[in-house]
Amino acid sequence: SPASSSSGNFSQFTPDSATSPHSATSSPQLTAKSQKGREDGMEGVRKAKNRTAFSKEQLQTLHQRFQTQKYLSPQQIRELAAALGLTYKQVKTWFQNRRMKLKRCQKQSLWTERAQWLTESGFQPGTYLDGHPKFHEVYPITTASNIQTMPPSHQHYGAGQ
Questions:
Q1: Other CB atoms closer than 10 Å to residue 95's CB: what's the count?
Q2: Is residue 7 part of a domain?
């Protein structure tokens, strides 16, 4: 998951091999790097990747495609990535992030809509939270010692059956 580093850049620490277009076999280059990490005592620590800065043209194309299609097949992701000069993972991640942004915007819009409707309907938050205006006069809020319990009921149900 993305995490903010001290320099303000976003980093990706976990590879997404499940959806990567490349095979899951390890390359000699990766093996050499992991062995060097073990020698340095840095096993399990991955170098952070910098945040991708998309060009205006790339963003425009991604946005246009998103307008017509929210989800892409792996083949469509590969084709779009090749056309834009991006990696499979960059395009896949951009679409995931854009769908989440749309979801957040829709949720925010729904809350704003509901709040506006409640205001127009005469909803008063204070009235809702306090209950009846005289509620605290009838049921004062004091310490627990003032709470009275109801005497047990002496009525027996089903007696004599």
A1: 20
A2: no
Residue 70 lies in a domain: yes
Q: Running DSSP on this structure, what letter comes out for residue 121? A: T
CB 84, CB 58: distance < 8 Å: yes
Q: Which domain holds residue 116?
A: 56-122
In a domain, 146, yes or no: no
- Which residue did the predictor score with more confidence, 143 or 95? 95
If phi over 0 gives left and psi between -120 and 50 gives alpha, with beta otherwise, what is residue 8?
Answer: left
Q: 97 in helix, strand or coil?
A: helix
The whole-number pLDDT of residue 48 equals: 82
Residue holding tokens 């005592």?
41
Question: In a 3-state reduction of DSSP, which class is residue 14?
Answer: coil
One-letter amino acid of 135: F
Cite the DSSP H helix spans in 56-160.
Answer: 56-68, 74-84, 88-120, 125-130, 135-138
Could you read off the pLDDT of 44-77 as tens digits, one per residue?
788 887 888 999 999 999 999 999 999 999 999 9
